[in-house]
Amino acid sequence: MPERNVVTWNAMIGGYFKNGDRESALDVFEKMPITRNSVTWIEMIDGFAKCGDTFKARLFFDKVPLELRTVVTWTVMVDGYNANGELEAAREIFDMMPERNYFVWSSMISGYCKRGNVKEARNFFDRIPVRNLVNWNSLISGYAQNGFCEEALRMYKKMQNEGFEPDEVTITSVLSACAQLGELDIGKEIHYFIKKKRMNANQFVLNALLDMYAKCGDLAQARLIFEGMSHRTSACWNSMILGLAIHGKNKEALEFFKRMEESNEMPDAITFLSLLSACAHGGCVDEGLDVFSKMETYGLVASIKHYGCLVDLLGRTGRLKEALDLIQRMPIKPNDVVWGALLGACRIHLDANMVEQVMQEVGKVDDDMDSGDNSHLVLLSNIYAASDRWEKAEKMRTAMGDVTDKKDISAFNTWNNLHHSCKC
C-alpha cells in the first residue's frame, strides 16, 4: 500500500489475532510508524485475552496512555478476565472503573453465572443504575443455565412489567427454563408470543422450541417443528432423540438416529448418551450394544456416563455377569454411579452372589469406611435383607452406625426402616 493509516495497522493487528498469530500481531504493533489510537490498544488487550493470555493483556492495559483509556478499554479488560474465569481480577478492574457501560455490568453478571454464583450475579444486576435488555438477558440466561428456572421465569415476567420487550436471546433462555421445568403451558404462551410479534425464528429459537416441546412431552408439536426446519444441527436431532427417549418412545428414538446417520449429520457424545438411555429404559440390549459400538466409528471416546448407561442396560435385563465383565474391561476407573447401577440391578434380581463378586472389586467394607466412601452400604443392606441374609445385612447396619455425616445417617435410616419392615 502506498499509504497506511492507523485504521490499516489496526486491521492487520486484529486479523493476526483472529487467526491466532500473536507474534505477528505484536510485531505489527511494535513497528507502527504512526501514533496509536485507543482502538490499537483495545485490539492488543482483547487479542491476548481471547488467546487466554490475560497476563499480557493486563500488561498492555497498564501501558495505555491515560488520555486513550476509555470506558471501552476498561470493559475489554474486565470481559477478558471474565471470559477466562478470572473473576477476582475482573472485579478488581471493575471496581476501579471511573465510569461503566451496560456491557461491563452484563459481563460481570455472566462471569458469576458461569461460575454458578447466581446470588452474586443478582447482586450486580440490582446495582445497575439504568438497565437495558442486554442486562436482563444476562441474568435470565444465567438463571436458566444454572437450573434456577423458576427464578428465570419470574425475572422474565418482571422484565416485561418494567416495559422491556423480549428478543430472540430472551426467548431462547426462557424456553430452556420451561423445558427444564416441564412447563408446557408457559412454553405454548411463548410460542404464541413469537408468532404474534412475528419474531425472527432463527436457528436458536427453533432449537429452543423443539427442545421445550420434546422435553415437555408434546412430541407431535416437536416433530412438526423438526420436520419444518430447513437446516437441522446435531442439537435438533439430539432434542428429538432425547425427547422420544425420556417419554418411552425407544424404537422411534432409534429410528430417528438412523435418519440422522442418513442425513450425514455427525452425532456427538450427547446423541449416544440419549440413545443408550433409551435402550436402557426399553430393555433393547442388542440395539444398545450396537449403538455403543458405533461411537468408535464416529471417532468418539466413551465417557464414564456412556459406560454407566451400558452397565444399567445390561443390569436391567438381568445380564449381570456381562455388566461386571464390562466394568472390569473399562479403560476408565468406575465411579459410584457405575457400581451403583450394577448393585441396583443386583437388588432387582436378588442376586446376592453377584454382590459378593462386586464387593471383591469395590473392596472390603472396612476399607470403604476408612476412605469415607459409604455410598453402596444402603444398596448392599437392602439386597442382603431381601434375600434373607440377615447376618450380612446386620454387618452393613453396624458399618452405617459408625457413619457421622448427614448423608450417610440418612442412608442408615432408610436401611433401618426396611430392616424392621422385613422383620415384621
UniProtKB/TrEMBL annotation:
One GO MF term attached to the UniProt entry: RNA binding
Keywords: Repeat
UniProt cross-references to InterPro entries, sorted A to Z: E_motif, PPR_At4g14850-like_plant, PPR_rpt, TPR-like_helical_dom_sf
UniProt superkingdom: Eukaryota
Keyword Magnesium: no
PPR repeat residue intervals: 5-39, 70-104, 132-166, 233-267, 268-302
Gene Ontology biological-process annotations: RNA modification
Keyword Repeat recorded: yes
PANTHER family attached to this UniProt entry: PENTATRICOPEPTIDE REPEAT-CONTAINING PROTEIN
UniProt name for this protein: Pentatricopeptide repeat-containing protein
The species this protein was found in: Gossypium australe
Phylogenetic classification of the source organism: Eukaryota, Viridiplantae, Streptophyta, Embryophyta, Tracheophyta
